[in-house]
Amino acid sequence: xxNNLKKFLNEDQDPKAVEKLLERITxxxxxxxxxxxxxxxxxxxLNLSPDCIALTNRRIIFCKPKTFGLSMDFQDFxxxxxxxxxxxxxxxxxxxxxxxxxxxxVMMDYLPKKQARKLYQSAQEKEEEMRSFRREMELENKRAAxxxxxxxxxxxxxxxxxxxxxxxxxxxxxxxxxxxxxDVGIISAEEFENKKNEILSxx
Length: 203
Prior knowledge:
This protein is an alpha+beta fold.
């Protein structure tokens, strides 16, 4: 088990807290979802069950143990719903905060500064991906409302990909785009399979 933990202990995370979190969170992961980073709260007072934040390739999960670590509350947000993330550093550590597109804010304090910075760096990369996606979808929706139904920057709206549309585009390129949307959780595995079968039916 310790070999699986090593990649999550690069910024002095508490090994016991990370191990306990991984045991709990593994059952929550969806198909093709994987944990990419874990940050562990470090309060100045003794804290046997610290709060944690886990980043996956599809979402951000706030994990808060209760009843002395015997159970745990999870709050998760898919990356496409995350609008912005911030960190604020103080003497006793850093506070990481996240704001959703619906203005819901969640935060966690007493994070080691190195871990908070790593969270922020990873979140910024995901945010940029999602901002680009939202911009393209907004432009495409405006054009569709105007009667154009034109794909912008060759990024298809996952709900409108069909064998009849995009007839001039290579089906294998479409499949790659669909896979990318599935990997970040924008479309479900079932939607991916349905669209994939539609595209393959005309190859």
